[in-house]
Amino acid sequence: MQFEFFPSRTLTIYLARLFVTRIFAVLFMLVLVLQMLDLLGESGDILAYPGNGQGQLLYYVSMRLPQLVARFLPYSVLLATIITLATLNQNSEVISMKAAGLSAHQVLAPLVAAALAISGLSFVFNERVVTRATAALNAWEAVDYGPIPKTSTARNNLYLAEGRDILLAGTLSGEGNAMVMTQVTYYRRDGNGMIVEQLRAPRATYANPGWRLENPVEFNAQTITQQRMGSAVVAKGITPARIAISGVDADGEGLFTLTKSIDAMALAGRRTTDLQAAWWHKLSGPLSAALMPLLGAIAAFGLARSGQLLIRAVIGMALGFAYFVFDNAALAMGNFGGYPPFVAAWAPFLLFLLIGETVLIRTEE
Q1: Where are the transmembrane segments (predicted)?
Q2: What average pLDDT does range 37-44 have in this prediction?
Q3: Quick one: how many helices (H) and strands (E) in the chain?
Q4: Residue 128: HSE in the Cβ half-sphere, 13 Å Cα cutoff
Q5: In the predicted model, is pLDDT for residue 152 greater than 70?
Q6: Is residue 216 helix, strand or coil?
Q7: Which of 73, 76, 94 is nearest to 85 (CA)?
Q8: What are phi and psi of 223, to 5 degrees?
Q9: CA gap 201, 214 in Å, rounded
Q10: How large is the average pLDDT for residues 113-136?
């Protein structure tokens, strides 16, 4: 048994089942509490829109829930690792396994295999559910929880600048010449970059060229007057092709869709460093769950009667949370161009993989 990576079939199933049940139990408790707190904070804004009620609150929960699950699944794996291993240590089961000839890596093998399976499920869940929920929720928030955008291609919070024209839109739906903007604000600047005119409109359609604002309200900064207009065509330099490569939301796009967006922006000569870092993080992020058993492994070993079990559990938790801090910091550096995209996404994972292995080998192997 010493030369096999996994222990016996019975022991492998026992450890994996113990670990997985604790992952979902911890995840359920975390998401339940966080969803309640988040809903308490957002319910006032949701119900403030006329006509919104319980149905809209439930819709918000259905869109927000996948985000919370995806974000806190790695934390749940970390906490479940510490709970599982500390319990096994407390009950002297780890000592029994080591007395039977198992190495520390063999004790952890079922947990790592289960965590890898969780990582695979997390990746699929992110691609198929979380990205769509994020895009829909962002579009809904952009219209202050008003009428829910019906199109799956809706985008939100667009900022477009071309020459002296600045165009902002709360949401954009449709493709090509059929694009429609809502909550539109247009600014016209003079040669010195000062804003001399502002138009606000509830809706705008593409006029080829330019964008036709419906029932806009004009404010002239030079005469300090305001008037309502029937329609106005503005920003003739901003085209649907220009919009297609603007405001890409990496969290709201799947891996293959994001690849196309990056290629389109690169072809147009736009900066794509932040999007490339997000692309790589879509792979390294879910895989972080497989790292948690290794970082929390220190809680499994050492005599429980020595009084150091709590200290070991705290150290394991500290290693896990340190990984998340470094991961977020590296991703932020990648977004600003401080790190190459690949390094920003994978350096924390590889660094803490080496740290976890070093701690395990030096203390137990």
Answers
A1: 12-37, 68-86, 107-125, 283-302, 309-326, 338-361
A2: 93
A3: 10, 8
A4: 6
A5: no
A6: coil
A7: 94
A8: -100, -5
A9: 6
A10: 93
Tell me the DSSP string of 327-343. HHHHHHHHHTTSS-HHH
Tokens of 137: 């929720």
Q: DSSP class of residue 282? A: H
Closest listed residue to residue 156, CA positions, set 253, 38, 234: 253
Q: 3-class DSSP state for residue 271?
A: coil
DSSP conformation class of 298? G
Distance CA 318, CA 356 (A): 12
Say which residues have a Cβ less than 8 Å from residue 22's Cβ, sequence separation at least 6.
80, 83, 84
User: How far, in Å, CA of 280 to CA of 331, rounded?
Assistant: 10
Kindly report the pTM of this predicted structure.
Answer: 0.77
Judge whether 77 and 118 are in contact, CB under 8 Å: yes
3-state secondary structure of 206: strand
Q: What percent of the chain has pLDDT over 90?
A: 35
Domain 164-236 belongs to what topology?
lipopolysaccharide transport protein A fold (2.60.450)
Distance CA 58, CA 73 (A): 22
| Separation CA 260–CA 64 (nearest Å) | 26
* DSSP codes joined into one string, 158-194: EEEEETTEEEEEEEEESSGGG-EEEEEEEEEE-TTS-
Q: Is the peptide bond before 341 cis (omega within 30 degrees of 0)?
A: no
The reported pLDDT for the residue numbered 305 is 52
Structure tokens at 153: 């291609």
In this predicted model, what pLDDT tens digit does every residue of 159-203 receive, in sequence order? 777 778 888 888 787 777 788 888 888 888 887 778 888 889 888
Number of Cβ atoms within 10 Å of the Cβ of 336: 11
Across the chain, mean pLDDT equals: 85
DSSP 148: P
Q: Where in the chain are the domains?
A: 9-144+274-364, 164-236
Give the residue among 69, 84, 48 at the shortest CA–CA distance from 130: 69
Taking residues 12-31, what's their average pLDDT?
A: 95
